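Obj: model holo form, ligand = iron/sulfur cluster.
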Amino acid sequence: MKLEELTTKCNPTWCAGCGNFGIWGAFKNAAVEKDWNSTNSVVVAGIGCHGNIINFIRLTSFEGLHGRAIPVATGIKLANNKLNVFVFTGDGDCLGEGGNHLLHASRRNHDLTVIVHNNNFYSLTTGQTSPSAPHGFKTKSTPFGNPDFPISPLTIAIAAGATFVARGYAGDMQNLKDLIIKANEHKGFSLIDVIQPCITFNKVITNQFLRENIYELKDHDVANREEAFKRSLEWGQKQIPVGIFYQAEKESYESSLPQLKDKSLIEHDNTRKNLDDLFRKFI
Ligand code: SF4
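Output (holo structure tokens):
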């Protein structure tokens, strides 16, 4: 796989300087390094500025309804568990409309790699408060300050049972590429929260703010769930950790299914059979 082979005829329509470019670049570099191509990989996106990414990567792809990228990806993985399945989702898409899907995919430990483009805004609709926006944040939808308190995809994923939970920064493509590869190599539900400033609407959590306050998780025991949970709550001056928060070995949903033990679902005999006898059992 060469970088040119991932290129499509569409040029990105994101604002110049948007963090989506960093996530796009990191993913494509990871794909080249690991030879992710349309025979072994699928990308799924939700709705939001992030969702455009599938138009700029030449891989088999699907854009789901708002908040429904994770269940679409789950279906793809169950149909062919040999595929690498990647989900691009935004903070609104993943924590708002799709919040319930994040919970249940985490607890079932579906073998997916979920990349959250987290910029604290509904940016496609021109800058309303999302579920990850800080308390007091002034936006179009909260001109007097956000009365809600934010939730973090990291905290939720750890609490719900995800087995690989990490945070990256869109302005650091090298480390983000490495995190994406590690998340994909992990067997089970992997989530990377990517801090991705929306340079057009977010004048508070800017690249400058992040560069001054991000620190790398070092000497951190990734097997310690309680510590990972505590670290996931950190946010503030010199207090924004990036790296792997939590990792655990646990049977994935797909590997627990006897039907998928020897072959994927699409390799089973799927010729149409008369189901009358089966239906009668339920009458
Ligand atoms: Fe990026 Fe924000 Fe522009 Fe959307 S509105 S493309 S998130 S900078």
